[in-house]
Design goal:
Radius of gyration: 18 Å
Distance between the termini: 53 Å
Strand content: 5-15%
Strand order of the largest sheet: 3-2-1-4-5
Number of helices: 6
Structural class: alpha/beta
Oligomer: single chain
Number of strands: 5
Number of domains: 1
Length: about 190
């Protein structure tokens, strides 16, 4: 009987680890650190075949627009790849922001940001080429901790601002961030 109870306790303890990690990710991602910065870096997401951003991506862009309009950032880097829809995310993101009154000359496009790691590396190059030294990353709350880690690994300290968009798939996405964060923690830039 004692052995059975020990196994149950061990199983419960093991199950608590991912839950604890998920709580840390969510707590960190929801506690925005969007202090004044040179640039907001918006990470891409799905763009529809007609070139319009998905609701999730639109929420990220709306958050960056808010930061810009409040004077917290003076430029915006929009970063993404080209999904199966065939539309470069960066171009679609720029069009969305311009249509909402953001001057085109303050939007820098990175269409080679195929993942979070690539976006961090590309943002560093873009920022250095324009003497920009501070950034706020904009993404979903569960994605902010790993994004900030990727930027730190590339030598950039950032704040974070989460998009105000929630959907049921966030539960899965949060769980997926646990091993992804661990992978980035072990990774180094080339």
């Amino acid at each position: 009987m004692i052995r059975h109870q020990t196994l149950i306790r061990a199983a419960l303890a093991l199950a608590a680890v991912p839950l604890f990690c998920a709580l840390l990710i969510v707590g960190d991602g929801l506690s925005d650190e969007a202090e004044d910065a040179d640039v907001a870096v918006v990470l891409g997401n799905q763009v529809h075949p007609d070139g319009t951003p998905s609701a999730r991506l639109a929420a990220r862009l709306d958050r960056a627009i808010e930061l810009f309009e409040q004077g917290q950032v003076r430029m915006v880097i929009v970063s993404g790849g080209t999904g199966r829809e065939g539309v470069p995310e960066g171009d679609a993101m720029r069009r969305y922001m311009v249509a909402r009154g953001i001057p085109e000359n303050v939007i820098l496009v990175d269409n080679a940001g195929v993942d979070t790691w690539a976006t961090a590396g590309n943002a560093k190059v873009i920022m250095q080429s324009r003497d920009l030294t501070s950034a706020v990353v904009v993404s979903q709350y569960f994605h902010i901790p790993r994004t900030r880690l990727a930027f730190r690994k590339h030598g950039l300290e950032t704040g974070g601002a989460h998009a105000r968009f929630f959907e049921p798939r966030d539960i899965y996405s949060t769980a997926r961030e646990i091993p992804a964060y661990a992978q980035y923690a072990l990774r180094t830039p080339r």
